[in-house]
Specification:
The complex is a heterodimer of chains A (about 240) and B (about 450). With about 240 residues, chain A is of the alpha+beta class. Chain A is built from four helices and eleven strands; from the N terminus they run E-E-H-H-E-E-H-E-E-E-E-H-E-E-E. Helices cover about 45% and strands about 15% of the residues of chain B. Classes of the chains: A alpha+beta (about 240), B alpha+beta (about 450).
Chain lengths: ~240, ~450
């Protein structure tokens, strides 16, 4: 029987444990688990240390039409006298999606190029989504744009970041007027100031609201409720397993 | 002026009239007496002719709207923030409530995003995808019916309103049979569906397709060729292709400019590339063209529903991975939908490991690898996109919805300024905004 292959010894990729290496970019260090951090932790889970990493920069070739878009963009930026490496901080390819991380001072020019260059033609911007990485110091606030090219049937993502102490990003309203309300919404929830926006006011929250509710340090709120004799804590007070 | 319908009071901003009905000319006449020619009319936030709590601020000169602005946010419920404090599976319960007329689109968009992050896009069983398409197309019909019904009502055509809600009721009955609820279903889950179709659902849907094929021509007879209807809708709410691209308008508004852009064709999901259907367009750029497109899309949706019903084959409706799939088939008990008694007997009586697994999956949930993704579906109103970010935990790190109503409503000013006050209602109705989706 010894010449029979043993399927349990096959070290194909799916049989190996998940990678927990140094790949990707660290945004946070997670300590403990199950919310057990106030003494009395006999499980040992409180001592766990896990670094949270987002997918890191990709190297050429990116695959598919990604290279074409990247080449065209870099070429078009060079034509305008811009060093592409200064505008595009990094390029991430993850889960079949292409992301350009853009330096904020070059955002408007990059977006204009993406919109107008015949080989790129990203006519439709689907708005901006804010993300708050509270513990990624110096890069806390991110604005994420998704651009769709109807001409070429493509979708890409632009990501721009700003530090908490200087939450300014140039407005894309002159390039994509649809971003008017989207930027107001992101300002309302994250406090990201879009410089050059025609009327950056709150849009969802009342005009006199204090604070920016979607930031990670802004509590959800809520009250504990009693159900069948048991106290159920407010959602943000419940045990978190992350 | 002080009639029974409009009372005036003086403020530092000038006289303020509170109009509760009656003759518009009277209001205009008396306001014209004032020194200031400019009148600012505040419509809403609870105007019965608006879609939910929408506030329109109109600056008018006689009957002409010189400036139009929207006040939104009255229905903001913090769904995106709440999602960050629940497990990935619980998220569907929240997102289904955003645009309450298109719950299955919200759920599908969210689940497609989560599945893409998990990397299980290809493992979702065929039957689950077919049922998702089936429900989405039924949902497209029910959403368009409300758009046409309320749009008609706002023109004073109550018959078309009754017709629309009559037919929508048939669809809500199907939802209730399949998911247990008329709205807020939480039926589509990351990895598949909450449960399989109940007995009798397929027959009822076939019956519905038959009835609907009979009823759809009634809308044509009632409205399509109706001269009053046409006079109110044609050339109203004009927005051309350039305007749509700049303002990000999608859905029927974009297709009324002649561009056949439909994500089901250009960026297919859930296997839409295998279905046979057409994308209707119009070249009028106006409210009438949008109305015609909605009518035709309902016919096309019926075609897709028929194809789905023919394609349904027995099989699983959830991914096989037990780390993601809810461990139990849900069943209807005396106190509502819950775990089936057989499953409870098994975990409580015979299998300690199954009990632990069930407990962990329900309370803790599954982990989603860190990263971000964007998933988009073609909702009846346009591109419904969801940007999902995970930090590798059991809860979403950030979920943002690009709701088509929110984006399309921005076009209100472009459509209304320079037109008549009465046309504002028609233009807004042709956008078909639902404030639950706009404000989230």
């Amino acid at each position: 029987m010894s010449d029979q292959p043993n399927p349990e010894k096959e070290l194909s990729e799916q049989n190996l444990p998940g990678q927990r290496g140094e790949h990707g970019e660290e945004i946070r260090v997670q300590r403990g688990m199950f919310g057990a951090n106030s003494g009395g932790d006999t499980s040992g889970y409180g001592g766990l240390v896990r670094s949270v990493r987002l997918p890191g920069p990709a190297t050429r070739p990116y695959g598919g039409w990604f290279d074409e878009v990247a080449d065209e963009l870099e070429g078009a930026l060079e034509e305008q006298g811009l060093v592409p490496e200064n505008a595009i901080e990094k390029t991430v390819v993850d889960r079949g999606e292409l992301t350009f991380h853009i330096a904020r001072e070059h955002l408007v020019q990059v977006a204009k190029t993406l919109r107008d260059d015949p080989a790129l033609r990203f006519e439709l911007c689907t708005g901006v989504s804010g993300v708050h990485y509270l513990e990624d110091k110096g890069r806390e606030l991110h604005a994420v744009y998704h651009l769709r090219s109807i001409t070429h049937g493509r979708l890409i993502r632009l990501e721009v970041c700003a530090p908490d102490r200087d939450p300014h990003i140039p407005s894309l309203v002159p390039v994509y007027p649809t971003n008017d309300w989207h930027e107001r919404e992101t300002y309302d929830f994250f406090g990201l100031v879009f410089d050059g926006h025609p009327a950056l006011t709150r849009i969802m929250m009342p005009d006199d609201w204090q604070g920016f509710p979607q930031r990670k340090d802004y509590p959800l709120g809520g009250i504990a409720v009693e159900y069948k004799g048991a106290q159920i804590p407010a959602p943000d007070q419940r045990r978190s397993y992350s | 002026m002080s009639t029974s319908h409009a009372s005036a009071r003086d403020t530092t901003e000038g006289p303020v009239y509170t109009v509760t009905g009656g003759d518009w000319d009277e209001v205009v006449r008396s306001a014209a007496k004032a020194d200031d020619e400019r009148i600012v009319v505040n419509m809403g936030p609870q105007h019965p002719s608006t879609h939910g709590v929408l506030r329109l601020i109109l600056e008018i000169d006689g009957e002409t709207v010189t400036e139009a602005r929207c006040g939104i946010g009255y229905l903001h419920t913090g769904i995106e923030k709440n999602l960050e404090y629940r497990t990935w599976t619980q998220g569907t319960t929240f997102v289904t409530r955003m645009d309450y007329l298109t719950p299955f689109f919200n759920e599908t968009a969210y689940c497609l995003g989560v599945e893409r992050l998990l990397g299980i896009k290809d493992q979702v069983p065929d039957r689950a995808s077919v049922i998702r398409v089936l429900l989405m197309e039924l949902n497209r019909i029910s959403s368009h019916l409300v758009a046409i019904a309320t749009g008609g009502m706002e023109l004073g055509a109550t018959t078309i309103m009754i017709y629309g809600f009559r037919d929508r009721e048939l669809i809500l009955d199907i939802y209730e049979l399949i998911t247990g609820l008329r709205m807020n279903h939480a039926y589509i889950r990351p990895g598949g569906l909450a449960q399989d179709l109940p007995p009798g659902a397929v027959d009822q849907m076939r019956e519905f397709v038959k009835t609907m094929k009979k009823n759809l021509p009634e809308y044509d007879k009632l409205a399509t060729g109706n001269p009053i209807f046409k006079a109110r809708m044609q050339d109203v709410g004009h927005l051309d292709l350039t305007g749509c691209m700049a303002l990000g308008a999608t859905g029927p508004i974009l297709r009324a400019t002649g561009l056949a852009h439909d994500l089901r064709k250009t960026d297919p999901y859930c296997g839409y590339e295998t279905y046979d259907f057409d994308v209707p367009t119009a070249d009028t750029c106006d409210a009438y063209g949008r109305f015609l497109i909605r009518l035709e899309e309902m016919r096309q949706s019926l075609r897709i529903v028929e194809q789905c019903l023919d394609r349904l084959e027995p099989g699983a409706v959830m991914v096989a991975d037990k780390k993601i799939a809810w461990p139990a088939q849900l069943a209807l008990g005396p106190d509502g939908l819950g775990n089936s008694l057989d499953h409870i007997k098994k975990i409580m009586g015979t299998s300690m490991e199954a009990l632990i697994h069930h407990f962990k999956l329900v309370t803790e949930g599954f982990r989603v690898p860190a990263g971000q993704t964007y998933a988009a579906v073609e909702s009846p109103k346009g591109e419904l996109g969801v940007h999902v970010v995970s930090d590798g935990g059991t809860r979403p790190f950030r979920v943002h919805f690009r709701d088509p109503s929110f984006t399309n409503l921005q076009a209100m000013a472009a459509m209304c300024e320079g037109g008549q006050v009465a046309d504002v209602i028609v233009a807004v109705a042709s956008i078909d905004p639902v404030m639950g989706g706009v404000d989230r």
